[in-house]
Amino acid sequence: MSIRTSTRVRIYDVAAAAGVSIATASKALNDTGRMTDETRSRVKDVAARLGFRPNAMARALLHQRSFTIGLLTNDTYGRFTLPLMAGVSEALVDQGVSVFLCAIEDDPALAKIHVDAMLDKQVDGIIASGKRIDRQLPVDLENLSVPVVYAFTQAPENGVSLVSDDAAGSREAVEWLKGLGRQRIVHVTGPRSFASVEERAGAYRAAVGADAQVLFGTWSEQWGHEAVARLWDAAGEKPDAIFCGNDQIARGVVDALRERGVSLPADVSVVGFDNWEIVAEATRPPLTTIDMNLKELGREAGRLVLALAAGEAVAPGIRKLPCTLVVRQSCGGGPRS
Amino acid sequence: MSIRTSTRVRIYDVAAAAGVSIATASKALNDTGRMTDETRSRVKDVAARLGFRPNAMARALLHQRSFTIGLLTNDTYGRFTLPLMAGVSEALVDQGVSVFLCAIEDDPALAKIHVDAMLDKQVDGIIASGKRIDRQLPVDLENLSVPVVYAFTQAPENGVSLVSDDAAGSREAVEWLKGLGRQRIVHVTGPRSFASVEERAGAYRAAVGADAQVLFGTWSEQWGHEAVARLWDAAGEKPDAIFCGNDQIARGVVDALRERGVSLPADVSVVGFDNWEIVAEATRPPLTTIDMNLKELGREAGRLVLALAAGEAVAPGIRKLPCTLVVRQSCGGGPRS
User: Fold this and answer.
1) Which of B20, B57, B92 to mutate to test the interface with A (most CBs of A within 10 A)?
2) pLDDT tens, B28-83?
3) Is residue A192 part of a domain?
4) CA B72/CA B118 separation, integer angstroms
5) Which regions form coiled coils (chains A, B) (predicted)?
6) CATH code of the domain covering residue B220
7) Nearest in space to B9 (alpha carbons), one of B45, B42, B54
8) What is the pLDDT of residue B88?
């Protein structure tokens, strides 16, 4: 595309016009290196006259910084990636840092290609994100020459990693239901093999006590329907609240209850987990749910990777970020103060 | 982070060890410029001995290519962005091209910052994507020094742009319903102000003929419920098929029909538009729907921007890419041959 080369003034042009080497021109413009004041100001005058715009790549070569970050993601639906990405970008854009998004689709070969391409472009750091805190990405990021921050994926020992505080989110849901006077609170959640499922269920059990009842299943509306059938077809007293492991399950639970003629939220309160708006807002009634604050988590990941890239000391280990209860209509209770 | 500078051998190191200027070292390694064979091979030997890895930025400075592309997006939900991004990435990753993702959230100031950051990093091209083909992004991309390809957003005159073929998708839905023997096909769709709504409605009317009936509303499940109430509460014969403008409307329609005791697909067939799997698969019964092939659209956008960056001739204008009918259970009819 001839437009580009014809309109862009390069450092080579400045050096030639000023009668100095490229290295000298570069140093003059960056106020580094040793030269006479006369030479430095001559180079700057020539650069200004030619309309030279010091470019990021040239600066990067000189400073060994590219002002780019790579975000590796293993989440094809975008449920986690997009809010995370928005937060990362928000933390970095004011610093002039741009983000490469690399979706690896659980494919080790693809992951390797993306990582090599990022290293080749000398990213200042990498944020590795997944969907599960108990699974590693299918690529080894230890011993890279750039810092790595992990988000929602298993980090190596001494890695810096960010997750949401599942246990605290779970406690918050149960406390909200108790505060509404609910006494028979059941937990309907995803597969037991997920660490976050065990974490949430453990906190639920601790908050509810001896009457705790957990139904493990899949992350689907279908499972919400099945769980309600199991609970309502059983003998004995019915639950007056259901705390669900994600919003899809909660939507299935709400639909199943409505179809049985159970009144929400008069007779039963339902809380979800995720605050996935497309699901939570379309549920009838709209879901009260736990938000993992993924955008803030992304911001924190961005801040951490920049700090590491700048050589600042960052303590390794897992950082748990707070969740927030978002009140809609599926539980009763007014907006929170 | 001292790891980086200590482990990375720079072109400066190679030049110093070989006793040549940086420019000469760079040219020697890239097989350009004029020098003796002895000098060139000495530089190469030194580079190999030091473990110098010619880096993308150095290559970029020399060739005026950065092997990066920017994807500007105005879609915060990720409904369009993620599949598009996956396609773009697929088309580019093998060429060593990485993608900057820049979410601009309809904010002109943020868009300007992202565009400046991309130009500063000398991207080889930009793909600008939105949610509506009749709205421009809130940033002017004309007269940039890099090529731009538009996807799902309004392009300037003489721009290169990609959209899905809404009219053909609409025809395909109607023909499928007719092939199942449906005779009273109604179209329930989004707001009239969207160009894609008019395009789909126009093709629907042309395919259905005199009996065509279009209900315009919002892109929501709620509107699906309202539309069914309006149709079923009216006097006269009921529809035996409803073609919906998106999957959310279709999900509302299906739920409303089930709650009225209408049997799907025995009495009424429902077709959606989008193939947004999170919605289409959870609908009971799962939705037959039109897929816009966003990933393929992304691949094509990637191929076009690379071609433009390489200086190839690309005809301006709007390219309409085909849609595909995805058959599930909401219409009856077996899988398509």
Assistant:
1) B57
2) 887 878 889 999 999 989 988 887 766 555 555 556 678 999 999 987 667 788 88
3) yes
4) 10
5) none
6) 3.40.50.2300
7) B54
8) 94
Across the interface, whether the CB atoms of A64 and B8 are under 8 A apart is answered: yes
Query: Per the domain annotation, does A33 fall within a domain?
Result: yes
Range of the domain at A103: 68-164+295-322
The reported pLDDT for the residue numbered B60 is 56
Q: How far apart are CA B81 and CA B298, in angstroms?
A: 9
pLDDT of residue B337: 45
The tokens describing A210, both together, are 């001896």
- How many Cβ atoms are within 10 Å of A164's Cβ, its own excluded? 24
Per-residue pLDDT band for B335 (boundaries 50, 70, 90) equals low
Tokens representing residue A172 in the block: 């918050």
Smallest CA–CA distance, residue B323 to chain A, in Å, is 20
Q: For residue A277, which of A260, A291, A264 has the smallest C-alpha distance?
A: A291
Tokens of A115: 């990582």
Hey, are the CB atoms on A120 and B55 less than 8 Å from each other? Answer: yes
Burial A257-289 (b: 16+ CB within 10 A, else e): bbeeeeebbeebbbbbbbbbebbbebbbebbbb
Co-location of B8 and B79 in the same domain: no
Q: Which of A66, A81, A96 is the closest to B57 by Cβ?
A: A66
Burial class (CB in 10 A: 0-12, 13-18, 19+), A296: buried
For the stretch B277-310, pLDDT in tens is: 889 999 999 999 999 999 999 999 999 999 999 8
Rg (CA), chain A: 27
Pairwise CA distance, residues A127 & A125, whole Å: 7
Which of A56, A68, A114 lies at the smallest CB-CB distance from B93?
A114
CA B149 to chain centre: 11
Q: What is the mean pLDDT of residues A282-286?
A: 96
The chain B residue lying nearest A6, using CA atoms, is: B145
B243 and B305 part of one domain? no
CB contact under 8 A, A145 and B7: yes
| Tokens matching residue A238 | 């019915």
Domain count, chain A: 3
End-to-end CA distance of chain B: 58
Q: Please, are residues A235 and A202 in contact by the beta-carbon 8 Å criterion?
A: no
Which one of A7, A61, A220, A299 makes the best mutation probe of the B interface by having the most chain B beta carbons within 10 Å? A61
Question: What percent of chain A lies above the pLDDT cut of 90?
Answer: 66
| Residue A330, amino acid | S
Give the residue from A102, A120, A255 with the most B CB atoms within 10 Å of its CB, the best one to mutate. Answer: A120
The residue among B165, B145, B148, B164 whose CA lies nearest residue B156 is: B148
Q: Is the pLDDT of residue A8 over 80?
A: no
The structure tokens listed for A169 are 């989110």
B123 and B198 belong to one structural domain: no
How many CA atoms within 13 Å lie on the side-chain side of B157? 0
Classified as helix, coil or strand, A95 is coil
List the structure tokens of B197.
Answer: 């709504």
ipTM of the complex: 0.81
Chain A residues with CB inside 8 Å of B309's CB? 1
Question: Over 50: is that where the pLDDT of A36 sits?
Answer: yes
Contact at 8 Å (CB) between B297 and B224? Answer: no
Q: Is A205 exposed, middle or buried (0-12, 13-18, 19+ CB in 10 A)?
A: middle
